[in-house]
């Protein structure tokens, strides 16, 4: 069973889940010819939690190889070769994200993310995301939460105007903006940020969900232009009103190398202005 261990020096949490070594393609080996996420193969997954549509177009079930208790998979299309930018029910997917996020709101943190493509960490080549309810606040979220709390004014609210002034906005809707951050951790990284200050996706209203669904599709299409794989990271700050919810889309063109692993510092190799031209 999964368990929580601590870094020998810092005490930061490390999830210990040896059962996940049994996942298909866990170490880059060949994937099974039978996709457990395709229609007709529902018996290959744990019993479902919910579905949308009949026949289904979105399906949720417990992860067969959980890293933590409550680990869930959200299959976002019945079509095996679908990509997020091309599905016609993105709003349904966002509403499912929100329901599953709220279902675990009693936990300290709920991690919502997607890995599209092998380089991004996907072990199954069928469009899906994952929900991981955690009994601790992840180190990155803790650091950013502290920065929000200690700032005189929300740094992300200020950043929106700065990125407009610098020409780094890719596109914008009435409630959300998509931009290339001026100091990205990864080449061609994109952020989707609500124009209204709120700290977690659970506070989103219907109009905001519709807009973020559209911007996520545009971001996914842009990411696929510049890299064979990408991650989508939902950055929430539960119970931290100073925090500002955002979504990071990270194309995976290159591996994280020794300097990044040793220091936690990332090297930016693409000028954000050039990234905007490529992603727009």
* Topology pattern, helix = H, strand = E: EEEEEHEEHHEEEHEEHH
The description of the largest β-sheet is: 10 strands, antiparallel
Task: Find the CATH superfamily of the largest domain.
Answer: HIT-like
What class, by secondary structure content?
Answer: alpha+beta
Q: Could you say what the CATH topology of the largest domain is called?
A: HIT family, subunit A
- Counted up, domains total 2
What proportion strand? 15-25%
- What gap, in angstroms, lies between the N and C termini? 44 Å
Unreliable stretches (pLDDT < 50, length at least 5) are: none
CATH class (first level) name of the largest domain:
Alpha Beta
Shape type: globular
User: Share of helix among residues?
Assistant: 25-40%
CATH architecture of the largest domain: 2-Layer Sandwich
Radius of gyration: 18 Å
Question: Which strand order does the major sheet show?
Answer: 3-4-5-7-6-11-12-10-9-8
Average pLDDT figure: 93
């Amino acid at each position: 069973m999964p368990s929580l261990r601590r870094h020998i020096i810092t005490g930061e949490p490390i999830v210990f889940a040896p059962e996940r070594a049994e996942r298909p393609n866990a170490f880059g080996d060949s994937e099974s010819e039978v996709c457990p996420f395709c229609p007709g193969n529902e018996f290959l997954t744990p019993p479902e939690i919910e579905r949308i549509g009949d026949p289904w177009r979105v399906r949720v079930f417990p992860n067969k190889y959980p890293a933590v208790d409550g680990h869930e998979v959200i299959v976002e299309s019945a079509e095996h070769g679908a990509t997020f930018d091309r599905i016609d029910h993105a709003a349904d997917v966002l509403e499912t994200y929100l329901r599953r996020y709220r279902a675990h709101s009693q936990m300290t943190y709920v991690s919502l993310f997607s890995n599209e493509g092998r380089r991004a960490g996907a072990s199954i080549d069928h469009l899906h995301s994952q929900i991981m309810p955690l009994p601790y606040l992840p180190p990155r979220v803790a650091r950013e939460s502290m920065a929000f709390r200690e700032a005189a004014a929300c740094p992300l609210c200020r950043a929106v105007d700065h990125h407009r002034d610098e020409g780094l906005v890719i596109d914008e809707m009435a409630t959300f903006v998509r931009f290339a951050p001026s100091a990205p951790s990864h080449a061609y990284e994109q952020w989707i940020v609500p124009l209204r200050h709120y700290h977690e996706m659970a506070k989103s209203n219907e109009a905001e969900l519709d807009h973020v669904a559209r911007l996520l599709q545009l971001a996914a299409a842009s990411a696929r232009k510049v890299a064979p794989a990408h991650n989508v990271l939902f950055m929430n700050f539960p119970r931290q009103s100073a925090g500002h919810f955002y979504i990071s889309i990270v194309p995976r063109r290159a591996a994280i190398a020794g300097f990044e692993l040793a220091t936690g510092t990332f090297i930016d190799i693409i000028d954000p202005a050039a990234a905007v031209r490529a992603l727009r």
